[in-house]
Every structure is written in C-alpha cells, then in structure tokens.
Amino acid sequence: MQPLNLPLRDWTGLRVWVIGASSGIGAALVQDALQEGAWVALSARRIDRLQAVAGGHPQALVAPLDILDTQAWQERHAQICQQFGGIDLIVFCAAEYHPERSWEVDPEGAARTLQTNLGSVYTGLSTVLPAMLARGSGGIAIVASVAGYLGLPNASVYGPSKAALINLAELLYVDLRPRGLSVYLINPGFVQTPLTAKNNFAMPALQTPQAAARAIHRGLASGRFEIHFPRRFTLALKLLRWLPYRLRFPLISRLVHP
Ligand SMILES: NC(=O)c1ccc[n+]([C@@H]2O[C@H](COP(=O)([O-])OP(=O)(O)OC[C@H]3O[C@@H](n4cnc5c(N)ncnc54)[C@H](OP(=O)(O)O)[C@@H]3O)[C@@H](O)[C@H]2O)c1
C-alpha cells in the first residue's frame, strides 16, 4: 500500500523546526534529528535548556519563543528562514498539562492551556503555511496524545485540547496533502517527561523520551499519517474507544481514582 505521506527517510540537510524543544519528547526529537544530519531550530521559552539540548551542535539554531506571543512567531520564522533558507518540517510538540478533575478547573487556567496546546498551533500554521503552500512541499507534524482518543478524568482540559488536535490533523491532511504537503499525527502513550512527572498514578507501558523519538522517527520514515506508540497500549485504548458507552464508562471509572 502507498504510504499516506511522503516518507522522511533521509534527514541529511532536512530543515526542521521543533516547537517545545527544551525538554522531554521535543528535546529527544531534536537530538535524534541532529544525529541524522538535519538542520534543527529549537524553540521554547527556557533558553538555557534549549542551549543544553542543542549542545553547541553546528547544525542547531536556538530560537527562543513563547508560543502565546503571536508576533514572536513571525520574527522567529523570519530568522530561521534567513539562516536555513526555509523549513521542510515543523513539529508542534509544546503543551502544558495540569491533572485536575472537572470540578477543580479554573476557567483562566483552562483558557491558557487551550491556547498553549491548540491555539498556538493555529498561529504556527498561519506562520509556516504560506511558504510551504507556495513551494508545494513541507511537513506538518502535530503531537497530540492518546488522551484525545476518549474522555479521561484528570485530563479535564488537556484531553479536549488533544482531541481537537487529532481532529485538526485529520482535516489538515485532506486539505494539504493534495497541495503537496505531508501531515503527520503523533499520538504517544505515556512517556517519562516533566509533563507526566505530575501524575500520581502508575502509568502503563511508560516509555523514555528517546524511545518515543525513535518511534516517531520510524513513523515519519514510513510516511504514516498516525504515529502511535507503544502499540500494546495505544491499540488497547483504540479498542476501548470503540466500545459502546454502556461498557466503556465503567471500564474507565475503574482505571481512575475516585
Ligand atoms: N509525556 C507523555 O506521556 C505524553 C503523552 C502524550 C502526548 N504528549 C505530548 O508530547 C508533547 C511533549 O510533551 P513532553 O511530555 O515532552 O512534555 P515536556 O517535557 O513538559 O515538554 C513540553 C514542552 O512545551 C514547551 N512549552 C510549554 N509552554 C510553552 C510556551 N508557552 N511557549 C513555548 N514552549 C512552551 C516547554 O518548554 P518551555 O517550558 O521551555 O517553554 C517544553 O519544551 C506535548 O504535546 C504533550 O502533550 C506527551
């Protein structure tokens, strides 16, 4: 079968912009891409962390960015394009997560999380798409989550933001693939990062950020649309998603602390 996207097998000289590159999965992706010969722009707010991840690599460009600052996106984009001559792949990997039950959600915090996890992707798309569409090539990789597959207590705002990203990636694929662009949807299971360090429950099939980066790399190299891992966990959740609500809800309640 034909892959749904352009397979990214050769990373030599690929110009990659990673949003959320200062820790966790984003940082591991940066190191993987640099090792494979890509040029990588690293964005997030903590400059010291970005510099540590870049490790002085000659093909790394530290490009600090607060993704809630819409003006800054244009400035960073211009800077990267000037240095690299363009962008072949943007990876939307930044997010925030606050474990909270529905009755604990504060509306201001919810708005901020939605803007960080979802709104910023629209800002990023409006920043990079004009040049990619004009060229008729480029890759958009969106890191969502299995938390977007189905409603899970504790992910009161994070879950809906990730469900929206899955929907967004699907419609982007239909919109952009005929115009020569590739759209990759990345749905990780649990990965050991600062984001999940807040969880006070046992996380099944927990992976290292390096293993996650390798799984993402393999998925991109195969030209998959959805890259989900580890499969023993993600396939179980996909199955749960297809159960009738009458069966699904009691199972989910059993998984979550009262
Ligand atoms: N860990 C998991 O189990 C898991 C599972 C499924 C999906 N994911 C997804 O994977 C992605 C990476 O998460 P992670 O686990 O690696 O978490 P992480 O280590 O906490 O990384 C989050 C990244 O987002 C950046 N970020 C947050 N707010 C930002 C802002 N306003 N402006 C710029 N950058 C911002 C952070 O950088 P600064 O703080 O330096 O700005 C950091 O680089 C996220 O989309 C997450 O939802 C994670």
Automatic annotation (TrEMBL):
Entry's InterPro entries?
Answer: NAD(P)-bd_dom_sf (IPR036291), SDR_fam (IPR002347)
GO CC annotations? membrane
Alphabetical UniProt keywords: Oxidoreductase
Instruction: List the molecular function annotations (GO) for this entry.
Output: oxidoreductase activity
In terms of Pfam families, this protein maps to: adh_short
Tell me its family: Belongs to the short-chain dehydrogenases/reductases (SDR) family.
Which PANTHER family did the record assign? DEHYDROGENASE/REDUCTASE SDR FAMILY MEMBER 7B, DEHYDROGENASE_REDUCTASE SDR FAMILY MEMBER 7B
Name this polypeptide is given: SDR family NAD(P)-dependent oxidoreductase
